[in-house]
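Workshop exercise sheet. Pairs work together: one partner reads the sequence aloud, the other fills in the structure field after running the prediction. Swap roles for the next sheet.
Pair: D.N. / O.F.
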Amino acid sequence: MIVVSDASPLIFLAKLDRLDILSELFGGKITVLKCVVDEILNDRAGLVERERLKAFLKEDAHILTFTESDIESRSLSASDQYSLTYCERNQADWLIADERLLRRVAGAKGIATIGFLGLLIRTIGANVLTKEQVKLDLEAAISLHGLRISLPLYQRVLHELR
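Structure field:
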């Protein structure tokens, strides 16, 4: 199975110390492009978060240098374009991403996407986390770590957790 991750879900999972759920959910190493690695290990990452990410990248990730794009877009970052191109060329099973435009373009290209919230919810069905743990993680991501989520989406997630 080929699973490629963008930066944002990795960052939030690291903040919550939940990077281990990726191997639990997907059963193997996650592909992370070098440009994404550079983004998640930049100076904005806190010390603990950076160490968690480094350990994850060392043990549970395939880091690839890939800087090709078949997409012309002024709205998508170069990193997003590379990720989409890599997924398309390698018939990736999943793209883990939160950015709305990236997910929309991936969907139009037939690439399955899942974001941070989807990963958390999926852990319940996989018996990795309980509903209460997911709710606590969601609250921590919002209140402590700056996760931005629309009110309708937040309400829908809470409904699913009941």
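Discussion prompt: The two ends are 31 Å apart (CA to CA). What would you look at next?
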